[in-house]
Structures are given as C-alpha cells and as structure tokens.
Amino acid sequence: MFVLPCSTGQRLAASTLRSGTTHQWQALRITSLQHQWSTPIPHARSLQTEATQVSHVPFRKQLKDEAKRKRDAQRLDAVRGNTQDTCKNSNDSSSKKWKLTVGLEVHAQLNTERKLFSDAMTSEDCAPNAHVAVFDLAFPGTQPEFQKATLLPALRAALSLDCEIRQRSQFDRKHYYYQDQPAGYQITQYYSPFAVSGNVHVYDHDGIAPEDGRIVNLAIKQIQMEQDTAKSNLQPPSTTLLDFNRVGHPLIEIITHPQIHHPQTAAACVRKIQSILQAVNAVTKGMELGGLRADVNVSVSPQGSEALGQRTEIKNLNSFKAVEHAITAERDRQIAILESGGSIEGETRGWTLGSTETEKLRGKEGEVDYRYMPDPDIAPLIIGQDLIDHIDRTLPKRPDEIIANLMTVCELTMKDAKSLMSLDNGERLDYFDTVRTMWASEKNDPISAPRLSKIVGNWVLHELGGLLNAANVPFSPTIVPPRSMVSILQNLDAKKITGSTAKKLLAMSFDGDERNVNTIIDQANLGLRHLSREEYIMMAQALLDKDPKKVEQIQKGKQLGKLKFFVGQMMRQGSGTIEAQKAEAVLKELLGLK
User: Fold this and answer.
1) Alpha helices for 394-495 (secondary structure H)
2) Which candidate in 9, 114, 322, 560 could, as Cys together with 317 as Cys, close a disulfide (CB 3.0–4.6 Å)?
C-alpha cells in the first residue's frame, strides 16, 4: 500500500513553499475551515430532526429522473411501432429482429516523458511509486502545471484521425471517488475538447464484418486530453496495492459516434485506431501491453427503429478479442431480456475474457453525477495555427499509405504488407526497411527494387518469423542484426550459398553467433560448390534407379508432386552443393517431362 511520507501539516508546509501567494491563500483557507470545524454547531440535533421531517428530492436527482422518463417514453413509442414488424416472422433468428448499435471510447497513453500536470516521469517499468510528484497525490496547496510537450503527440493523433483542431479548449473536473484517484476528480476536457469532428476509414482487409461491405466510415465526435489513474494491484483476499507511477499519465480519449452494428467491426475499428496512433508516434504501447483500453457503449433496438435502445457501457476492455466477445455477449443478454418482456437498465458492466456474459459493476452515471465544472486552476489551452500546420506537414505516413506503398513500390501482397504493419508495434516494418535500404545501397548486381523487397519481406516475415515462433521469443531488431541478414541474402542471391545453407546461417545468427557471415561460410566450408551437369545427372539417375515405383507414378500416373521428393533427396545428399532449380530441370529431363 502507498504510505504517505509525512504528516498533513508537513505536507501543507512543503506545498506552500513551492509557489507563493496562491498556496499561502490556500493554506489560510484550510486553516479557516479547520477553525470552523472546531466551532460547535448550536442545536445540531434539532436541525437534523427537522431535516428528516422534510421530504426533499435533490435537484440533481430530479434532473436524472426527468431525463430517464423522456428516454423511456421515446423507447416505448419505438417498440410499440415496431412490435408487429418484429413478430411477423417468428422463425427468424433474434439477431435479425434486432439492430445492434455500438459506440467506442478509446483511451490511449500518449508518448511523452512527463505527466500531464506535473514534471514527474511517465515510466511505469520502474519500482512502484518511484515517479510521483506531490501534485499527483493531491497534496493540499499543490497546483497543476500543464506540460506543453504532452500536447504534441495529442495533436499528431488528432490530425491523423482527420479531426478539426480547436485553437481554444478548456479543462474540466470530473468528480468521482475511487481509491486510484487521489484528488477525488479527474482533469479532462468533456465540454471543450481540443479536437472534434474526425473520421477513420476501416476496410474489408482491416477485418470488418462481411455484412458491412468493403468500407466503414466511422465518425469521431471528439478527442480530449485527460489524466490516467493509479494502477491497482489486488492482493487476495482483501488487500489492494496502489502504484501511483501511472496517475497523471497523459491520455487521450477518442469518442466515436454510435455507428457500428457488428461486434467484429467494432474490434476492427479499435485495431485500426491503434495502428494509426502507433504509425504517427502518438503512443508507445498497444492494447496488448496496456497502452490502450476501450470502453464500449452497447444498445439494441428493433430493426427499422430510428430510436436507439437503452445503452450499457462495458469498461476497460484490453484486447481486440475482448472487445468483440464482450459486445456479442452484451447484445445477446439485452435481446434475451427484451424478448422476455423486460427492460434494459442503464448500467456500467464488466467483462472477463472467457466469460459468456457481462456482469454489472454499478448503475450508469450521467453528467449530473460527475458534477462537471471548469477547472479553476488551469488556464484555457491556446494552440497556435503555426503549430498545427507544422505538425500536419511533418506527420508520418498513416497505415493505409504505408500498405499502399508496400504493395505498389515493393510489390508485396496485401497479406504480407498488413503483417509487416501490424507485427511487433511496427518494429518488424522498421527492420524490413533497414535491411532493404542497406542491401539496396550496397548491391552490385542489377536486382530490381521490387524483387529485392520481396526477398527481404519473405525472410523477415516467414523465415525469421518461424524462428521466433519456434523459440517463443519476442522480436528484437538485434536478434539477427540487419548487417547479418543483408549478408545472408546477398550470398543467397549471388548463388554463393543454397537456400538451406542460408536458413542454417540465419539460425546460427539467431542463436547468438556474432561472427561475420562470410567468415562463417569460409570457416565451415558452407559455400556452394558448383557441380557439373554430369554430376547432377549421375546423382539424379542413382536416386531414380533406387525407387522405380515412384518413377512409374510420376511418368504414368502424372503424379508430378512426387518430383519434389527427388529434388529434396538430391539437396540432402548434396549437402549444400545442389541448386533446387537445376536439380528439378535434370530430373524432368531424365523422366521425359517437359
């Protein structure tokens, strides 16, 4: 558990020394409040008795009840108008009678060195509570100090999502109490965000549901900057440890309009947003490493109804699979309730991977519950047009542009281009570019750029990827140094080694052999020794004579696939001296095949 290192008096004294009159005023104010608290209140018991006798409904509850009555009336009208339509064909599946609608709230940790309102470092990999400023813990008298550098990745994110940047925005306080929020409120931009009206294009190759066709244009309502909370670590049975390294970490919250109608498409949209943010260096970690979380708002309504159903919110989904499965489970739960004559309650719900149903966490809060108010300690955020223009001009390429370039310039397949984009948070793509550029700058042969790119792409994705999967280790650009990969591929392309020898050299470098590739080839005598045509014929004929049954199957049964068997036999027998194409050509000649 986090233990405060000093008493309240010491904290106040330390905080008031930091900046002068503002904090002195706060110290005086707190002293005044303490004096008021120490003064006995006359007739407290009689006042309390009188209060209990008055039936008083708080104004906040009146607002909530009135809003709920209006929503319920709208939904009742919509259901009555569609009841006959939805019940005409009782053999239809439930999913055909009801329309699913989903909106996303994606929270992404920005790639910054400092926290949003303090100069503490943002590293989470250090010891717990190693990077915590007094403001992060809401010590009395401390004031927020906006760290200007945190705005840069936020602008990159917003511009990459085609948002309009507001040159003037404002920070608000969102009040709620929880153990991971020391101040009792979160600083956010609910009413006046810095970016609005964006969109993201999600295509069929991004994994949207087939029912959505080739493209989904998802509109973004707003993007706001806000603080992250502390990290809670549950210690069974009843202890929770708090790590405040994360509290105050700069976040952006991307809020979309409710325009998604299939769980698979929702997951694809979150995946696409993550890939865009990573491509423009707005975030450092993806969903799988905890740098991105998603909340989903789910509702169902009768097909044909323009009114949306009562929504529920599923919080803190931390994988694409969780997004898809949680929406599916919540959709089915709501449909089952509605078809049995029940009604959906506005709730905040949770999801555990592997579950079959979401679980209620609490009643759904609204704006009134959070008591939003402008933060009086933070001046409006003013963003100059020159800064916006500069960020826009220097924005890195987005995923769709990168994939198009890989397919047109490098002539990679869509599958390979997408794999390079998505693997290892973009590190595999950077490695591919490094190897390709290094080889292109050194090549002394007329190999074309597309052919070079295809060779590099194949080895970076498939050959190196196979070794990574077999060893079950994460990718690192140093696990096979780019210089070693280039040397292996140069020797292979120049026919100085065979494909099997190249794979052997790759495995040796992968396992930690730091010797120069050419040195290994010389010392281990791995260079290709070019055999004469007569030697190829002699080896091939000997193998054919040993297996007349397969020869007959190839010649009479036209089972040409068995030809590969003999090619493999020749390459194993030749121990790195046999070229597969020459071996196949000689075998076809001996078998009378063309």
Assistant:
1) 399-408, 414-422, 427-442, 449-458, 464-471, 482-493
2) 322
pLDDT in tens, the chain (594 residues): 443 333 333 333 333 333 333 333 333 232 333 333 333 333 333 333 333 344 466 666 666 677 667 666 655 555 444 444 433 333 345 567 899 999 999 999 999 999 999 999 997 678 999 999 999 999 999 999 999 999 999 999 999 999 999 999 999 999 988 889 999 999 999 899 999 999 999 999 999 999 999 999 999 999 999 999 998 888 888 899 999 999 999 999 999 999 999 999 999 999 999 999 999 999 988 887 888 999 999 999 999 888 899 999 999 999 999 999 999 999 999 999 999 999 999 899 999 888 889 999 887 766 677 889 999 999 999 999 999 999 999 999 999 999 999 999 899 999 999 889 888 878 899 999 999 999 988 766 567 888 899 999 999 999 999 999 999 999 999 999 999 999 999 999 888 888 888 999 999 999 999 899 999 988 888 887 777 788 888 888 888 888 888 888 888 777 777 788 888 888 777 766 777 888 888 888 888 876
For residues 483 and 463, give the distance between their C-alpha atoms in angstroms, rounded to a whole number. Answer: 16
Helix axes 151-160, 263-279, angle to 10 degrees: 130
- Rounded Cα gap, residues 260 and 522, in angstroms: 60
Give the sign of the dihedral formed by CA 216, CA 222, CA 223, CA 227: negative
19 CA to centre of own chain = 40
Give the Å distances, CA to CA, from 136 to 19, 184, 375, 563. Answer: 16, 12, 16, 70
pTM score: 0.72
Amino acid, res. 301: S
Secondary structure of residue 109 in the 3-state scheme = strand
Contact 23, 139 (CB under 8 A): no
- What's 313-379 look like in SS3? EEEEECCHHHHHHHHHHHHHHHHHHHHCCCCCCCEEEECCCCCCCCEEEEECCCHHHHCCEECCCCC
How far is residue 276's CA from residue 156's CA, in Å, rounded to a whole number?
Answer: 10
